[in-house]
């Protein structure tokens, strides 16, 4: 078993944060009307993708009725639709949609993960929950031997990436500020910021397909 496989197994079995365990399982039981006939995953959601990835795409946490339902991050929700369409245009995904964990999606040169692995109430993890989950991200980064670029989707992911890289001994001062298109070299990695593809951002035009394509294109160039 590879280290990435070990991390995946440990993530799926994790029950370290009582509030998150209660919430993710409550959502899986109660469901929402449009998915009432489906069986929810209701567990922590591991990262997934190419073990030889040179690019990591990092989010905040699984969506309550997205990854918490399907068992795969950014799968089955509008944020994932927006993200994977862009990854497909940039040659990082073999298809532009992701609706279920067995839908045939494959990533090339890319690995997708989240700072927090359980769906949090209100989409707001606590600092303790973030710190409890962070070692999984640290291990994933260290296990991706060819990793060069980390695309942080939103300020929470940007902060999580900086903390994880710090745990690996890679720090920079002053602390870099998040922004869409922000870029900073940290050790052997380059951290690139992008607005999160939430409906709040995509419906208002704060994040457009062209904007996300540009950030992912920059990550592809860095990773060459």
| Count of separate DSSP helical elements | 8
CATH class: Alpha Beta
Number of E-type strands: 6
Structural class: alpha/beta
**Strand order of the main beta sheet, please?**
1-3-2-4-6-5
Unreliably modeled segments: none
Rounded mean pLDDT is 97
In CATH, the topology is named Uracil-DNA Glycosylase, subunit E
Fraction of residues in helix: 25-40%
User: Shape from CA axes?
Assistant: globular
- CATH-scheme architecture: 3-Layer(aba) Sandwich
Q: How many domains, in number, for the residues?
A: 1
What Rg, in angstroms, do the CA atoms define? 16 Å
Query: What is the assigned CATH homologous superfamily?
Result: Uracil-DNA glycosylase-like domain
């Amino acid at each position: 078993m590879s280290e990435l496989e070990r991390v995946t197994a440990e993530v799926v079995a994790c029950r370290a944060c009582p509030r998150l365990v209660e919430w993710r399982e409550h959502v899986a039981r109660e469901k929402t009307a449009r998915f009432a006939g489906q069986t929810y995953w209701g567990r922590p959601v591991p990262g997934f993708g190419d073990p030889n990835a040179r690019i990591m795409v990092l989010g905040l946490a699984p969506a309550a009725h997205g990854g918490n339902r399907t068992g795969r991050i950014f799968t089955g929700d509008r944020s994932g639709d927006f993200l994977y369409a862009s990854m497909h245009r940039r040659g990082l995904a073999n298809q532009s949609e992701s609706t279920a964990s067995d839908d045939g999606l494959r990533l090339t040169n890319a690995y997708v993960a989240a700072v927090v692995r359980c769906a949090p109430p209100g989409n707001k993890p606590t600092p303790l929950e973030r710190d409890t989950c962070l070692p999984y991200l640290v291990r994933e980064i260290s296990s991706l031997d060819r990793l060069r670029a980390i695309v942080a989707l939103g300020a929470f992911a940007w902060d999580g990436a900086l903390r994880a890289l710090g745990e690996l001994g890679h720090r920079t001062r002053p602390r870099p500020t998040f922004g869409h298109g922000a870029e900073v070299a940290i050790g052997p990695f380059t951290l690139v910021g992008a607005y999160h593809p939430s409906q709040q951002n995509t419906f208002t035009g704060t994040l457009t397909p062209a904007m996300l394509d540009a950030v992912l294109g920059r990550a592809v160039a860095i990773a060459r």
